[in-house]
Each structure stands twice: as structure tokens, then as C-alpha cells.
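User: Quick sanity check before I run a bigger batch. Here is a single chain. Can you write out its predicted 3D structure?
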Amino acid sequence: METSDHIAKLRVIGGDVALDFVNTVDGEPGGETEFDHLRDYGDLVAWGRRVGLLSEGSARRLLQEAEEQPSEAEATYARTLLLRDALYEIFGAVARKEHPPEHSLELLRREECAVLARARLVPKGEGYAWEWPDDGDVGRVLSPVVHAAVELLTSGPLDRVKACAGCHWLFVDESKNRSRRWCTMEVCGTNEKVRRYLARRAAGRG
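Assistant: Done. Predicted structure follows.
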């Protein structure tokens, strides 16, 4: 399965798959976005493969099923955008130490109820975990994203969820002293250093 360049090169820095899902758009979801990495259902499947939610075989089956069920695939893509907007509102608010909007929480609650209704509990390590079978449902690619978002919201380290000071992508700050400000120092951290340097030069010339 070939992966589009914009998916293959997409940085995966969220520290949680729900945040990586939100970070598939550059800019504010629902607003004037600079670039959306999920342009269609195929991109969603490619992203699922990219972040390890789907095996190669599962991804191929989903794409085949999408060809056979184009209206369902289109509906899943529309659902993808709504879910991403809701998760941005929820975890963006969390990063700002605010209460998430009730309508976004309700959308996530409904999604979790729906995906758990299709899930099954399977042995994993010394315990059990939810699993979504390859059952012809083209929307199952979103199931682990929804469940990860609920787990992060209900039992995750919410005090470590932050927004990058440069690009506003969301991430879990896993630094020891919780001082991380950038999605990655190599990108936004470096860009900020350059901006500060140029500002100092301009001020000196003035």
C-alpha cells in the first residue's frame, strides 16, 4: 500500500494517538487551516497505518471495502472531521486549563458508546484490551482513536497536555520538569530561536 507524501512525512509527536489525530491539520481545525493532512478516506486509512493503528492487511481491506461502500466511506470521512474538531476543542481547552465545551464532550461520549458496542475484549499481556474486528465496517479505523481520547480524558495525565507555543499542535509533556514548550525543538523551537534572533538584530539596527 502506497502512502501519500504528506502522510508519510507527517510528524507524530503527540505522545497519544488521540492528540496525533488532532495534529493531522496545520492550524485550527474548523478555521482557516494552512494544510489538512486528511484530505479523504484514503488518507485516514494511510494515517492509521502510519501511527500503527492498522496493519498492512487491515489497511488494504479497509480500502477495498471503501471502494465497495463509497457512501459509507464518505460518511466516515465527514465523521472524521467532526470528531477531530471535537477533540481539538476538548484537549485544547485542557491545555489551557479550561473546561471543555459540553457539546464536544457529548459528541465524544456518543462516539465511545457506539465504538464499544462493536468491540470485544481480548487477552493482551497479563490483562485484557478492547479490539475491533475486521468486520466490513469502514468506520472502524476511528474506533481506537475515540477510545484513546476517552482514556486520556478520564485517566490520562491531563496536567501534562500542552499546546505548542509555535504551531499550537497538542502533545503530552513527558519531560521530567514539565517545562516542554514546543512540539519539537527541531522545528518550532528552532523557528522561535530564529525569530528572536532576527528581532534582536532589527532592534539593534534601529
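The longest strand covers residues 120-124.

User: Great, the batch can go ahead then.
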